[in-house]
TrEMBL record:
Gene3D superfamilies: 1.10.8.60, P-loop containing nucleotide triphosphate hydrolases (3.40.50.300), Peptidase M41 (1.20.58.760). It comes from Thaumatella adunca. This is ATP-dependent zinc metalloprotease FtsH. GO terms for cellular component: chloroplast thylakoid membrane. The keyword Protease applies. Acts as a processive, ATP-dependent zinc metallopeptidase.
Length: 622
């Protein structure tokens, strides 16, 4: 904040007001005479009358309109010397003056000096004048500035961050793993820098680009890169900053934003999390939100309305494109929709190279190995992975990040913080059998992913974990792969049943059974992989404004519902029987693996497969 006389006066006003009233209350002139300060003691009115009768009172001075008297008295009780005594007089004492005259006592009345009139006048004028000056400064400050504490009356002003030359410190070279999206933005930057290449063939600059993708994939990073590369005025704002509790404020902010943008065209407006203001209108229980809908209507008009917005490119980002209003997504407003997906192996490798530039990594650590071990990680996850590994390295007082710290960081991100190791007991052995059951079934099934690690070290809520390396292509999954996943998830419960008996099964398989049921239901109702036929009976896209459970209404008869339940049960029972058969046929190797796991607490996938290969009579894949 700039220090000027306006700021100093604005912040000092409360101090001035408080100081003035404290001074007025504490230091205003007193109404009593200075003689009051010489009073030695006090006396009751009745005793005062007795002193008059005894002739001890020599003089009486009356103050405060007859409420107080200062007497001069002398007598044996007073040491035979004149003393001044204060007496509080009653409201009406007509006999007092008569007694004083009868005893020939000197009487003097002192009227109250009206010294407070001036101070009351000053107080009544000073505070209203101070208030008027303060309001004038606030109005003037809100009209002349675009931010800061003086924005009390600027509700309708845009809160967008404006930069003539955006210095984000990020360029396209810092963006990796999303080459297709980066090419789209490089073209827009070229359009802004050299528009004649495109206008020569009649091309027009795109009005809007919508970035769509899961969280952490680099949508905001791309916006920062285009701001750093384009060298044009840049406005950045969040969708939630448009909406206020007052109806009409959001629309006013949209108008103000585009007004400033038109004054600085060509320019770029970046709206992050546009779903906060751009979601579908008139949906949800109880209707829509008036303020949000007015804001959206104004945004639609500004982007492509009667007046137009030549020279303004609107870049927006969201991870909820399914809830955006269709009028916002049409060409002419957002001409392009750029999907920013989870990176593949090459993308992860490029992202790790970017984020490892400022990290001290052991030369023996291969970035490609890290990339292969992290399928499904977004760009933000990979950046967090290397940061967590660096923190672990510093905690262990090492100079370089090794593969050990990388492995610990991956485990921590996927499953949570490492817990205390289990003590050797029946519970630990049962958990070991459960995890080995998952791993042996997954290893022996040809359509299942390979085992990456089996551990008895608790992480998060899990007391034991079995990791599988997911395949790169998760877009197309066959029926045999889904059934292999179901059997792998049932491996833990099946092992408990075979080894410990039906009466000793535990609650450890609760999460596994939820996954099994969900996968079997999807096979029947969405993928058409059952005897019911190639029918899609449940829609994946439910109404998000009604809640997933409310919006996902059944569109089939009760008879079909019974068939669905029977098919789900049939699939799960079939997979369960096959899983139990695998466990029975490989009981010897399971016992051996359990003993090794209890001793070492962690077995990686390569070692796990080598132990199985020692038994030549066991087929590698079923």
């Amino acid at each position: 904040m700039k220090f000027s006389w306006k700021n100093i006066l604005l912040w000092s006003l409360p101090i001035i007001v408080i100081s003035f009233f404290l001074w007025q209350g504490l230091f205003a002139p007193v109404t009593n005479e200075n003689n009051n300060n010489l009073v030695n003691s006090r006396m009751t009115y009745g005793r005062f009358l007795e002193y008059i009768e005894m002739g001890w009172v020599k003089k009486v001075d009356i103050y405060e309109n007859g409420h107080t008297a200062i007497i001069e008295a002398i007598g044996p009780e007073l040491g035979n010397r004149i003393q001044k005594i204060r007496v509080e007089l009653p409201a009406s004492a007509p006999e007092l003056v008569t007694k004083l005259k009868k005893n020939h006592i000197d009487l003097d009345a002192h009227p109250t000096k009206n010294n407070t009139a001036l101070w009351n006048l000053v107080g009544n004028l000073f505070f209203p004048l101070l208030l008027i000056i303060s309001l004038a400064l606030l109005f003037r400050r809100s009209n002349n500035t675009t931010g800061g504490p003086g924005q009390a009356m600027s509700f309708g002003k845009s809160k967008a961050l404006f930069q003539i030359e955006a210095k984000t410190g990020i360029v396209f070279d810092d963006v990796a793993g999303i080459d297709e999206a980066k090419e789209e933005f490089e073209e827009i930057v070229t359009f802004l820098k050299k528009p004649e290449y495109f206008t020569a063939v009649g091309a027009k600059i795109p009005k809007g680009v919508l970035l769509v993708g899961p969280p952490g994939t680099g949508k905001t990073l791309l916006a920062k890169a285009i701001a750093g590369e384009a060298n044009v005025p840049f406005f950045s704002i969040s969708g939630s900053e448009f909406v206020e509790m007052f109806v009409g404020v959001g629309a006013s902010r949209v108008r103000d934003l585009f007004k400033k943008a038109k004054e600085n065209a060509p320019c770029i407006i970046f709206i992050d999390e546009i779903d906060a203001v751009g979601r579908q209108r008139g949906t949800g229980i109880g209707g829509g939100n008036d303020e949000r809908e007015q804001t959206l209507n104004q945004l639609l008009t500004e982007m492509d309305g009667f007046e137009g917005n030549t020279g303004i490119i609107v870049v927006a980002a969201t991870n909820r494109a399914d809830i955006l209003d269709s009028a916002l997504l049409r060409p002419g407003r957002f001409d392009r929709q750029v999907n920013v997906d989870i990176p593949d192996f090459k993308g992860r490798l490029d992202i790790l190279k970017v984020h490892s530039k400022n990290k001290k990594i052991d030369p023996n650590v291969s970035i490609s190995i890290i990339a292969r071990r992290t399928p499904g990680f977004s760009g933000a996850d990979l950046a967090n992975l290397l940061n967590e590994a660096a923190i672990l390295t510093a905690r262990e007082h090492k100079n370089q990040i090794t593969l050990q710290e990388i492995d610990k960081a991956i485990d921590r991100i996927i499953a949570g913080m490492e817990g205390t190791a289990l003590v050797d007991s029946k519970s630990k052995r049962l958990i070991a059998y459960h995890e080995i059951g998952h791993a042996i079934v997954g290893t022996l099934l040809k359509d299942h992913e390979n085992v990456q690690k089996v551990t008895l070290i608790p992480r998060g809520q899990a007391r034991g974990l079995t990791w599988f390396t997911p395949s790169e292509d998760q877009s197309l999954i066959s029926r045999s792969q889904i059934k292999a996943k179901i059997m792998g998830a049932l491996g833990g419960r099946a092992t408990e049943e075979i080894v410990f008996g039906e009466s000793e099964i535990t609650t450890g398989a609760s999460n596994d059974l939820q996954q099994v049921t969900a996968m079997a239901r999807q096979m029947v109702t969405r993928f058409g992989m059952s005897n019911i036929g190639p029918l899609s009976l449940e829609n994946e896209d439910s109404n998000p404004f009604l809640g997933r459970s409310i919006g996902n209404l059944n569109e089939y008869s009760d008879e079909i519902a019974i068939k669905i339940d029977n098919q789900i049960q049939t699939i799960v029972e079939e997979c369960h029987l096959k899983t139990r058969e695998i466990i029975k046929n490989n009981r010897v190797i399971i016992d051996k693996l359990v003993d090794i796991l209890i001793e070492k607490e962690t077995i990686d996938g390569q070692e796990f497969r080598k132990i199985i290969e020692q038994y030549s009579d066991i087929p590698q894949k079923i």
